[in-house]
Write a structure and sequence with these properties.
Number of helices: 8
Protein name: Response regulator transcription factor
Largest sheet: 5 strands, parallel
CATH architecture of the largest domain: 3-Layer(aba) Sandwich
Strand content: 15-25%
Keywords: DNA-binding, Phosphoprotein, Transcription, Transcription regulation, Two-component regulatory system
Number of domains: 2
CATH superfamily of the largest domain: Response regulator
GO molecular function: phosphorelay response regulator activity; transcription cis-regulatory region binding
GO biological process, one term: regulation of DNA-templated transcription
Radius of gyration: 18 Å
Helix content: 40-55%
CATH topology of the largest domain: Rossmann fold
InterPro entries: CheY-like_superfamily, OmpR/PhoB-type_DNA-bd, Sig_transdc_resp-reg_C-effctor, Sig_transdc_resp-reg_receiver, WalR-like, WH-like_DNA-bd_sf
Order of helices and strands: EHEHEHEHEHEEEEHEHHEE
Number of strands: 12
Length: 239
Amino acid sequence: MTNEGTTVGRVLVVDDDMTVRDVVRRYLELNGHQVQLAGDGETALRLFAENPPDLVVLDLMLPGIDGLEVCRRLRQRSAVPVVMLTALGEEEDRIAGLQLGADDYVTKPFSPRELALRVTSVLRRSRAVQTPPPVRTLEDGGLSVDLGARTARLGGAELSLTTREFDLLTFLMSNPGRAFNRAELLERVWGWEFGDQSTVTVHVRRLREKIETDSARPTRIATVWGVGYRYDPGSGAGR
């Protein structure tokens, strides 16, 4: 593994277009990364098992095992950061990828320089997550978050949260009663200075499905119309 605190690492690039693979490889190597290439999902999974990378750049449209299935299988064995490559009209697949635990995406046609910047940003965030904060617990009406162990429980049962869902929940619970817009959440939770704000909407929806009694009528994570979202403490008491 590359040393924590650096923003370079070993990157596996998965795309069936040889030209795209070569261009992405050259830009990533210019930024100091070590790059492996795969042209299909089966090869990508084999290379990952043989020598797990620090990050995966993953095209959704792959022959054989498609990108969504590759992402799902990676998430079964690892929390490795995944940056997806998607075509302009693949919004449903993009959202599905985010729900499977992908960390970011870039839409084709894309700027190789932008992709390299996003890889650096995702690596920085993932390594910051690996440094545990002082052991501290957030409690609210049966919902408990242990920041040291990075676990969350509701009514004593452990919740299955992705890294991004955990970070979003922790941030909102640490700032109760305060409304944040989507751009603020992108930057303050995940360190994104740019990005699609629908990412926040997807992860709020997923969190609500896991911590609300009725996700269609949320009480913990409230929508502040025209602004964004707010965590209301005490709303889940007595559950």
